[in-house]
Design goal:
Elements lengths: L1 E6 L5 H13 L4 E5 L6 H4 L9 E5 L2 E5 L4 H8 L11 E6 L2 H6 L7 E4 L4
Parallel strand pairs: 1-5, 1-6, 2-4, 2-5
Antiparallel strand pairs: 3-4
């Protein structure tokens, strides 16, 4: 699975969902992770049973909200720790240093720093 980090305090949720939809159209299996402080995805992506942590499907995109790292997502989905998640690409949105470290974005395939001037 390739990780792409979207880093910065600027609101990027809509942009990330649009990029994910393009990737799904190209037959990629995509996971969007919202690990921002405000977790805007919780409010713009419909979920049947929203809890503190959940993964929902929207427009063929899996969207994870409330998780602190990929291991938590694996546990939630019932994937063994040593197994890889079955996604081609994970788009990870974070706006804090803890999210950067916890999702190991230092080793991400791409790191996109999003700021508004």
């Amino acid at each position: 699975m390739k990780k792409i980090g979207f880093i910065g305090a600027y609101d990027k949720t809509d942009l990330i969902v649009y990029v994910a939809k393009i990737l799904v159209t190209l037959n990629k299996k995509v996971l969007v992770v919202d690990s921002t402080v405000n977790q805007k995805a919780r409010y713009i992506v419909p979920a049947i049973n929203p809890t503190i942590k959940y993964v929902t499907n929207f427009e063929d995109i899996d969207i994870a909200v409330g998780f602190e790292n990929l291991s938590d997502i694996k546990k939630y989905l019932g994937v063994a720790e040593e197994q890889e998640l079955e996604y081609d690409i994970a788009l990870i949105d974070t706006d804090n240093p803890e999210g950067f470290e916890n999702f190991e974005l230092k080793t991400a395939r791409k790191k996109l720093f999003c700021n508004f001037f």
